[in-house]
From TrEMBL:
GO molecular function annotations of the record: branched-chain-amino-acid transaminase activity
InterPro entries on file: Aminotrans_IV, Aminotransferase-like, BCAT-like_C, BCAT-like_N, Class-IV_PLP-Dep_Aminotrnsfr
Cofactor section: pyridoxal 5'-phosphate
GO CC, alphabetical: cytosol
Natural source organism: Microvirga makkahensis
Protein name stated in the entry: Probable branched-chain-amino-acid aminotransferase
Top EC class for this record: transferase
């Protein structure tokens, strides 16, 4: 069975889903997107993702084509039709199709494209062994709080990571870590304090980050929201990343230097377990 995707009102085999040449997503990267984790066939923390999508659309002034209930229905339907039990739902909205011109077109209708990916989250090797990270300059624009389709800086950052034998890039600005190419970055100091950069226009407000902040508080683990430098990260006892498709993943080296003893650390493991418990909890408890 071929993969079923959603495009502008229809569920289609991926081979039949075609986007017009003049789509502004293709021409300008003029659009925004979201990505939601799927565990046990269920969307994880979906309301928070839809809230961020609504905000991204508002900030770039693209009309939101669906209500929250409609989005949820489309996501669930796509997960069901593709038989996804563990993985990811991706969806993007562009400003639509119009002759190439920078200003907003008069009557363009937003393009909506959605697909699923099957992916191991709970048993991902990265979660067991930890991953390597390299630091790169943060080359992005100044509205990183918007989940924009313009991902060229992240493409270059993550390719640089791969070429250095690492699995993620941590982007750095003025000596401070902003975030990962597609994840939020955390360190745990030798005193056991979990540190994450505060929200601002400099980073994406990670949904996994947000959930973990609340969950860790409940578990009595204190999180500190402040900037941290690359040197502080090198010297950390533990480091980890969070994202909707990976949850909490340990980082065992940064720029080739071992973090702590070079193995996934105990606090990171505990935070991963806490997050998984939330994601697998009965629906009423998770929302
Ligand atoms: N920062 C960036 C730049 C990202 O692309 C992502 C992945 N969406 C994240 C952080 C993590 O966000 P979330 O937990 O919502 O997936």
């Amino acid at each position: 069975m071929s993969r079923i995707v959603f495009l502008n009102g229809s569920f289609l085999p991926i081979e039949e889903a075609k986007v017009p040449f003049m789509d502004r997503g293709f021409m300008f990267g003029d659009g925004v997107y979201e990505g939601v984790g799927v565990l046990e066939g269920r969307l994880v923390d979906n309301d928070a993702h839809l809230e961020r999508l609504e905000r991204s659309l508002r900030e770039v002034r693209i009309p939101n084509p669906y209500t929250r209930a409609e989005w949820t229905h489309l996501e669930e339907e796509l997960v069901r039709r593709n038989g996804v039990t563990e993985g990811f739902v991706y969806f993007q909205v562009t400003r639509g199709v119009a002759e190439r011109d920078f200003m907003f077109p008069e009557n363009a209708v937003p393009t909506v494209a959605m697909f699923t990916q099957v992916k191991a989250i709970l048993d991902a090797p990265a979660a067991r062994t930890g991953i390597a990270v390299v630091t790169v300059p943060d080359l992005r624009w100044k509205r990183r709080d918007i989940k924009s389709l313009n991902l060229l800086a992240q493409v270059l950052a993550k390719q640089a990571a791969r070429e250095a034998g690492a699995q993620e890039a941590w982007m750095v600005e003025d000596g401070f870590v902003t975030e990962g190419g597609s994840s939020s970055g955390f360190i745990i100091t030798r005193e056991g304090r979990v540190v994450v950069r505060p929200l601002s226009n400099a980073i994406l407000p990670g949904i996994t980050r947000k959930a973990l902040l609340a969950l860790s508080k409940d578990a009595g683990i204190e999180l500190e929201e402040r900037l941290f430098t690359v040197d502080e990260a090198y010297d950390a006892a533990e480091a980890f990343l969070t994202s909707a498709s990976m949850f909490v993943v340990p980082i065992v080296s940064i720029d080739g230097r071992a973090i702590g003893n070079g193995k996934p650390g105990p606090i990171t493991k505990k935070l991963r377990d806490i997050y998984i418990r939330m994601a697998t909890a009965p629906r009423m408890a998770a929302e």
